[in-house]
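As a next step, we paired sequence with structure tokens, yielding the entry below.
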Amino acid sequence: MTHPSPSEWELMRRHFSDERLRLYLVQVNGDEDAAARLYQWNSRCSAAFWEALGHLEVSLRNALDARLMLRQRKQGQARHWVFDDARQLGRDVRGVGRHTYPYQDIAIAISRVQANGKPLDPAQIISELPFGFWHQLVARRQMFLWPDLAAAFTHAPNRSPVPVRNRLARMRDLRNRIGHHHRIWSLDLDARWDDLLTLTGWIDPELRAWIDTNTDVPAALSLRP
């Protein structure tokens, strides 16, 4: 991180707004130089976490997709679960925000694939499903799915859904904060990094090691001003 000059701070005020920067100033007792460094560090950590969260999300949806497909076959359903005519995923329920799960999310994903002119195949639809969809699959109200989904986390210490659910909730919050360019320095980022590595390790320890080696999160965290 570079040392901001007075002109750089004024540039930040002009484009990022006093209201946005106020929280950074409060954190460092009004020191503009320190506030600018904190802002830069927040951006660097956000970028590093975003990369790692992408690896978690793709591996999570692939692991859960595989388990859901096995469940479909056991239920005698020939079609992929995203085309779930028998509603094997349960009824739509109100979730966080204004959306309902799971079929509204699937319907929105299908409409996006169609709007983009892509083939209406399961892989394309799954790629359009939000992180919240996967989190909701392990929610308490979807517990009837857990006996089948638990095997997606084959390296977890036990078959309880609670540790998975809680960590996914924290990852979802972190992902949303970064996606909306909110501050994340106010979170326990070391703990969030541990959450991410733990979840990926429960899917596959080799994946955890690969992410830990090939992302910039540890380096970014070490540079906190």
Remarks:
- The longest strand covers residues 93-94.
